[in-house]
Every structure is written in C-alpha cells, then in structure tokens.
Write a structure and sequence with these properties.
heterodimer; A: about 375 residues; alpha/beta; 4-stranded parallel sheet; B: alpha/beta; Rossmann fold; 2 domains; globular
Chain lengths: ~375, ~425
Amino acid sequence: MSLDALVARCQALYDDVSLGAVRTWKDAQPGRKAIGFMPVYVPREIIHAAGMLPVGLMGSDIEIIRGDAYYQSYICHIPRSTIELAVSGRLDALDGMLFPSICDVIRNLSGMWKLMFPDKYAKYLDLPQNFDSAVGGTFYAGELRALMDDLEAMGGVRITNERLLESIRLYNHNRALVQALYDLRAEKPWQVPTVELYLLLRAGNVLPVEEHNQMLEAYRDEVQRIERPQLDNSRIVLTGSFCEQPPLGLIRTIERSGCYIVEDDFVLGTRWINGPVAEQGDGLQNLVEAFLTHSVETASVYIADKPKGAALVGKYRQRRGEGVIFCAASFCDPALLDQPMLATAVEAEGIPFTEFKYSENTGQFQVIKEQTGTFSDSIKLWGNT
Amino acid sequence: MSEQAQVRKEASMVIQKEMITAHYKALEEAPQTGKKLVYTFVPGNLNELIRCFDNLLPVHPEINALQNAMRKRTGKMVTDAEKLGHSEDVCTYVKADIGMLRSGNIGPAGTRIPNPDLLLLSYTGCFTFMKWFELLREEYKAPVAMLHTPYQGDGMISDSMRAYVVKQLQEEVIPKLEKVSGEKFDIDKLRELLQRSREAEDDLVAVLESAKHRPSPIDSYFGAVYYVGPIFSAFRGTQGAVDYYRELRKEVDQRVREHKGPITPDGDMGEERYRLVVEGPPNWTSFRDFWKMFHEEGAVVVASSYAKVGGLYDMGFRHDPEHPLETLADYCFGCYTNLNLPSRVALLARYVKEYEADGFLINSIKSCNSFSAGQLLILREVEKRTGIAGGFIESDLVDPRYFSGANIKNRLESYLQMVDQKRKGAA
C-alpha cells in the first residue's frame, strides 16, 4: 500500500465515528465482542487475550444534539460527544466500556453509563496511585483479575497465561513500532508529519493490534522511501492533550504555522508503558509491574518523589526541543491544574513556552495559527537553545 | 441593635465558635508551642489518626477557603492565583488557597496559618485534591503522605479495596505521621478517639433525621453546614465534638417538642411551605443571601448531599473502635463524592421519600467536577424515581463572579411556583 493510500485509510477510520471497522471485525466471526475504553490507559493486552477487540474512544467533533443535555457548559467536551455517540447508536458495536481513572468527569461518566445503558457492561478501572508493588501492586492485580473474570463471564475466551503473554508480545511490538516512529519524527520531523503520525495512532484505536502493527510497519517503510522538503520550522514539544484530543485541523494548523512537533502526548495510552512489558513468567504480574515502574509521567498520575515538570524538561532535552506548547482542553482539570507547575519548571530552565486551550470541536484556528506562528518566529529570531 | 444581632445564640453555637477560635489560635501559636501542622482534606479526613499524636494539629484548606469566602475575601485571592497562571477553568478552592498563601497565609481568623509540616493527601472522592497538594508541595516544599482511596465504581467496597487502604495507612501514612510528630503511634489511643467519634456521630444522625418532623426543626443544607462543621473537620474524635453534638441534639429535640422550624441568620424561620432535598455544595461568597432566598419563601431543606460530603453516617456507618484501621478505610470509601452515580441517585431518591420532600433542587457548582459532572442525569433519574419535578441552579464555591443573585432568585421562585402548581394539580 502506498503512503498516500495508508494515510487515506487512517483518515477514513478516523472519520468513521460509527466504528465501521469494529463492526467488520465482529461480523467476520460470530460471537466476537468489542470493549470500548476511555482515555488514557487500560491494559489492552487483557481484552485482546480474552479474544475481544479493545476499542479506544476519544470523543469526536460531531454535531452535538443530545449530548449537551447531559452536561453544563463548564464541563469539558469529550463526555458530551461520547454520550452523543452512544445515544445516537454509533457505539452499538461495543459490548462493554471501561473508564480508567483519570479525572472526576470520566469517573462520573462510568456511573452515567451504568444508568443509561444498564444492559451493557461498564467498569470503572481504578488505577493505583500508590506505586509500591506490595501495596498498589497488590490492589491493581486484584482489579485486573476482576476485569479478567468479567470478560470471561461475558463470553470471552479463557485468559490463560499463555494467551496473555502472547498478547503482551503483540502489544510490545506495537509500542516498539510507535516509539520508533516517534524517534524518527524527532530526528526528521519534516519526514513524519504529526498529522500522519496522529492518524496512525488513532487507527490503532479501532483495528486489531495485529493489523495495526502491519500498518505501522508499512508506514515506517514507505515514509523512509520518499524525501520530503525540510522547512525552517521550530522544534516544539506539545503537552496537555492526553485525554480530549484536539481536532485534526488544529494539529495541522500548528504544523503549518511553522512548528515541527517533535514530542506530544496525543493518544497517550499507546505509549503509557515506557519500554516492553516482560514476556516471560506471570503475564498479569508483568502488566502490574510495568504499570508501577514504567508508566509515563502525566497529569493523572501522582508523582511522589520527583520534581514536577522534570519529565517534560527531560523529553524536551531528549528531543532537542526549542519550545514548549501547553495545549490543553478547556475545563480539563488534570491538565490545567498541572500546567502552572510544568510552566514553572520549564521557565526555570529558560525554555520558551506558550499556551492555549481548545475543545475537540474547535472550528476556528486562525487565532491559534497566529499565536503558534509568532511563537515559532520568536524562537527562530531570539531563541537561545 | 441590628435585627441580625438580636438573634439568640444557642448554647451549641457558642460552643462551636469557641472550638473554632481555640483551634485557629492553636494553629497561630504552633511555632511557639512546637506543634506540627498537618494539612489535609475534609472528605476522607483521618482526624482521629492525626489526633492520636499530641504534637499534631490538622488544617483544612477547603475550610479556610470557604470561611474566607463567607468573609468576602476570596475574590481577590482567586484572581491573584489566576494572575499567577492558574486557569479560570479549575477549582476555586485551590485558587483561593494559593491566593491566600501568596498573600501571607492569613487565615479566616485573621491570623497567620503556619506552613505545613506534612501534607496528608487523602485522595477521596475528588481528583483535584491530588493536584492541589502537588501544587502545595511545590509551594511549601513540604513532605506528602499519599492515601489513595479507591472509588466505589461498582457501588460497593471490596475486601481488596479495604486491604489496599489499610496497607497504605500502615506503610505510608502512619510512619510519616510518626516521623513528623516525633511520637510513636498508639492504636489504643486511636480506639479511644474512634469511640468518641461514634458517640458524636450518633448525635449528629439524630439531628439530621429530626428533619423528618413537620415542621423540620433544622435546615439540612444551610443550617447543616454549621452542624457538620466540627465532625467534618478538626474535632471528630475529640471530647469537644462529643459535647457539642450532645448539646446540639438537646436543642433540636427541644425545637421538635415546641414544633419550631429552623433557626436562620434572621431568627426563627416562619411557616414551612416547601420541603426540599438539595444536591451539591452551597455557594459561600453570598451564603446568607442565598439562604435568605429560601427561608423567605418558607423553603426548608430537609436533606442534602453536601451534609454527607465528609461522611455518610445516616446510612448506618459509625467508626468502629474494634477495627481501627479498617474503619478509617470504610469511612473514606463512604464519603458522598466517592459514591458512584447510581448510588448517588438512589440516596437522593431515598431522601425525597423518607423526608417527604416536595422538591428536589441541584445547586451545580461551576468549578467542582466531582459533584457537578453528571448532575443533569441525576436530576432526571431522581424525577423519574420520585415523581417530583426537579430544579437546577448554578453558582460557584468561592468565586464571587459566578454568583448571580437575581438569576438564582428568579429561578428559585419559578421553581417553587412550579411545586405549588403540582401540589394544586395533585389536590
């Protein structure tokens, strides 16, 4: 498949908010089940090992007709579009939903789901904020075991350790491929536009991991076969977009305004675990240990002993950034409460930064284009890194 | 003499005022007395555990924020924090606290509250708590003891959840309290404190349930803010709290015998015309004006979810001295905002029925997602289950910019007219 065809396929998957790919997967074999999950992280390996399809939901910029009736104006946008998708039947392909702990809005959405769709499986997945193996680890293992029991009871395949380890291998490969593309983008951002990388990640939300891995490999091979022009853009680390996603047009706008995004936290669940999960031994325990010891540092995770912002500054250095953009969804508590601490850390390092908020249905990009364009210009003119 | 000044002070009010004054004085004098300050939160507060250590005093930043708001001081604090880069979208308790800190940490009593020696991050029912204490850790460079309380996502407490919290108490919280206080943890002392909590909790429940009488002798939202104050904050487990609740219960029992309604800031309330159940915290910046809108209409709140934010005692929970750490865990799990939405709906519908309410009102708080996200569905579900029409108003905790008095009054009056119409229709 050519690069253009690959990207077009990803775009089509992104545009299909009715989850056509999920329906196709289910129709291919009677009895298949699909489990949706909200941002940021769930261990997809467990769903996969149950013979089910994990489906990442990240809201949408669809027209909201009924979703607004469930939320006040001061609540972020992703829950209202998620409700809209559900009440309009576009999530009918899903047999269950997981709501990982990220914030109070997604947490409460789990209860709304139970009330609104009592016939569908809905589980709040409490990720531990204690990272001691004997304390938070024990609790988390219990949570995951309960999830495994639920999935098996729903008609999933029995999750043997062998199946789980095989799923871990597949997702390790997926993480490695994604990481390699992130590395390639940081090295040659003109070669791997963020819009394309983003669409590739989003495709992984609805495709089986085996197919997504093939897609990532194909993109990796194809994108290195062509030469794209290098522009005099600034190298930007973007942070704050780990849950509600910016509209595609906004990502494109940032790039077109003169910024190469060399690191971001879009679709962060794909990169939540830094490095591979152990592929031998007890698969469940391996997932637990990976979460406790190799989770990404983001706003929904309690960071016990490190200074806030150290991870962001570290990424900035690693990616040879020239500036930071704080790009958070409006009314996103985790991102916006985190931001002053991150800004302080970045400022202390003399790193230039700018900030703005968006909503997943933001339609006007001109102001942001002017802001990020000016930011990029100022880096080029006066940047000291 | 103003009308307000003529209001008779009940003995319980005097006791509470003395308790709070003494507490703030003790905080102010901590640098001289050598006491160490533990900042912590109201929901899931581990007051008995803190009080086990003679050398420790609890500080509750939400209480500081709301009391500052009642004294009209938080407007500037919030905007000061926003000037420092804190978003206009986030919790105003946090911003009021940051604003207070940056202007000398002068608390509601007008005295300086010393810096924390420990931040006890009891992460119960509100995600913002975690970010709040991360912010304070950066500001104060103080150590943090983190207690993660799992959410009742499936509407129940599992053994695994309980074991997780107990382990954190044993391995994270208690060692840090020991370290900062310089004292050894004494579980028998904790049992004594828990026994006193239990006594006070019995009396509090009797007070809250007195609202089942007609007329209700208390207001379970505005008035209850004062009633729950000691038990939700620095005094649960103390003899002071036991004495306070015994006195309060005596007074309320007397009001029942005399068929009296609640005491308001303007004196005894007139005829009880509407019995309401209210969901959500009150607005603090215009607290008295807000209350007045209700009591002038003869509307009394007979049950509220806010009076359960620091513990759901009326559903049977009591601290249990026989299982000291497990009971602290169960307490944390049971705070109102740690309940899932189906449990919240069931509780509110139960209140409507048990308290024979003829109205259900939500005060939705702009900057409190823990309460607010999902309230429009709660409204519909409670209406469906009880057959009564719900009302919806919006305000904020401590940001005066989000209290629109005329708008709220208008909505409230319209709502009460609707309740009237429904009653006439039913008759």
